[in-house]
Write a structure and sequence with these properties.
heterodimer, A: alpha+beta, Alpha-Beta Plaits, DNA polymerase, domain 1, Dna Ligase, domain 1, five-stranded mixed sheet, B: seven-stranded antiparallel sheet, 7 strands, globular
Chain lengths: ~400, ~80
């Protein structure tokens, strides 16, 4: 029996939620975003709009589009509902913002053939949640995702074990997982535009052109995903990041430092919940003229102490923020994890161990009453500037990457 | 489209059946508003709270309501008129 991997993708997620909740928006072009499009309805896409486009350009192309800032807490609730439904059809689920992968191997006995399983899931999501989803099924993640993409919007596609090559052959080469802009340009220089044409290149030539990635491309253009279906049990992350765009570009040092502290707090709490201590911190900033800068520091000893991490972050900020231009975006990335307890703490300074106890207490309070129940450190400067809910400060474009 | 934030407690007549809660009508100030249909619903389990949220339609007006379950109090969150 072959594996059956399911990929589910909510069609135009944020915009679909808004059209569900506000009937006056149905059938109209709808944009969700601030500064740039986070999500747009299919009616808006007919005007050439897409996620990532600036709102200025979007309004020029589609002046009648309804533009909403969005409410990410609502979207999160809808996503969680959909994932609960998906777990009735899969063993374990790997979720992202608007898509998820699940192992549905063995579910055929309950739901019939994969196509029927996909249709059933789609119907249940529509009936219980009210949102359109596309479902793809195949024997690996790569093909499952390609299948759901081919079925959008609102469709179901199943690529059987002997159908992969036929399905892939006509696809543009850039649709293949692992083909980025540079690889695409190299292949186009060789007049290779489809996956079928890529398949004609011998393994040795791909290896000489792209190194180890060439081996991966050789397998993938034949429908074999060398990224094996992951063990869907929770695994330690490679990075934990938090980033956001300011509601308005700002030069206010208190607001900037307050936001960095808050993002760091959230990231550090996630690390503590995963039982990890941090070795490397990276800070990124984006100026209002869209210039990006980043810097990274590896600590001499790993830690989960926010004060130590914040000291590093402010040092990096001083180094990066040298221009008299407002900032529109900041981000924190933690990495270089090791399990808590791996580092020797026998002679840990007392202030550090007391802060660790304090963080443990605050984490317990927040787990029970919500993150916003305790506001600490520099993030106090965000009080009155930012709306709060149980999850914490309401960020303009929260981006929680794994 | 006009969105008006209200954020006021209200009295709601609702049906509790089969594990679900369905609001039927509510009183806002001196107005008795009959709900034509529920557009969508979601549950927010943030922190220790538990709230049932609804978007409901009454004529041309869309209302966002929520039931704060621990406090057993309904709230009118906002009104949207196209």
């Amino acid at each position: 029996m072959y594996e059956l991997i399911l990929h589910i993708d909510v069609d135009a997620f944020f915009a679909s939620v808004e059209q569900l909740l506000i009937p006056a928006l149905r059938g109209r072009p709808v944009i969700v975003g601030s500064g740039c499009i986070a999500s747009c309805s299919y009616e808006a896409r007919r005007f050439g709009l897409y996620a990532g486009m600036s709102l200025r350009e979007a309004r020029r192309r589609c002046p009648k589009a309804a533009v909403l800032a969005g409410d990410y807490q609502i979207y999160r609730c809808f996503a969680e509902h959909i994932w609960r439904i998906c777990r009735r059809y899969t063993c374990g689920l790997e979720t992202y913002l608007d898509e998820a992968y699940g192992d549905a191997t063995g579910m055929r006995r309950l739901h019939g053939d994969p196509f029927a399983l996909g249709r059933h899931l789609q119907t249940v999501v529509r009936d219980e949640v009210g949102l359109p989803v596309s479902v793809g099924l195949a024997d690996n993640r790569m093909l499952a995702k390609l299948a759901s993409a081919s079925a959008k919007p609102g469709g179901v596609a199943w690529i059987g074990p002997d159908q992969a090559e036929g399905f892939l052959a006509p696809l543009p080469v850039e649709k293949l997982l692992g083909v980025g802009r540079r690889t695409e340009e190299k292949l186009r220089d060789m007049n290779i535009r489809t996956v079928g044409e890529l398949r004609a290149i011998p393994r040795a030539m791909l290896r000489s052109m792209f190194g180890r990635r060439g081996e991966v491309l050789y397998e993938r253009c034949r429908g074999r995903d060398v990224q094996h279906v992951p063990d869907l049990r929770p695994r330690p992350p490679k990075t934990i990041s938090r980033e956001t765009t300011f509601h308005e570009p700002t030069c206010d040092p208190k607001e900037i430092r307050g936001m960095i502290f808050y993002l760091l707090e959230r990231a550090a709490r996630t690390a503590r919940q995963a039982g990890l201590i941090v070795r490397t911190l990276e800070l990124s900033i984006r100026y209002d003229d869209w210039k990006d800068f980043g810097a990274r520091r590896t600590l001499p000893e790993p830690t989960d102490d926010e004060e130590q991490l914040y000291a590093v972050a402010t040092e990096l900020l001083t180094r990066l923020h040298r221009r008299r231009v407002a900032l529109r975006h900041v981000g924190i990335v933690l990495s270089g994890f090791s399990p808590k307890g791996a580092a020797g703490r026998l002679f840990e300074p007392r202030p550090v161990s007391r802060r660790r106890d304090l963080h443990g207490t605050m984490d317990a309070i927040r787990a029970r009453y919500g993150h916003a129940s305790v506001v600490t450190g520099e993030s106090i400067d965000l009080l009155g500037r930012r709306e709060q809910n149980d999850y914490g400060f309401v960020l303009r474009t929260p981006s929680l990457t794994k | 489209m006009n969105v008006e934030a209200i954020d006021e407690p209200i009295r709601v007549l609702a049906v509790f059946s089969g594990g679900a809660v369905e609001p039927l009508r509510f009183r806002w100030g001196r107005r008795n508003i009959r709900i034509d249909r529920v557009n969508g619903r979601w549950t927010d389990r943030g922190g220790d709270g538990h709230a049932l949220h609804y978007s409901v339609q009454a004529g041309q007006e869309t209302y966002y309501l929520h039931l704060d379950v621990p406090a057993a109090q309904w709230w009118l969150d906002k009104l949207i008129v196209d």
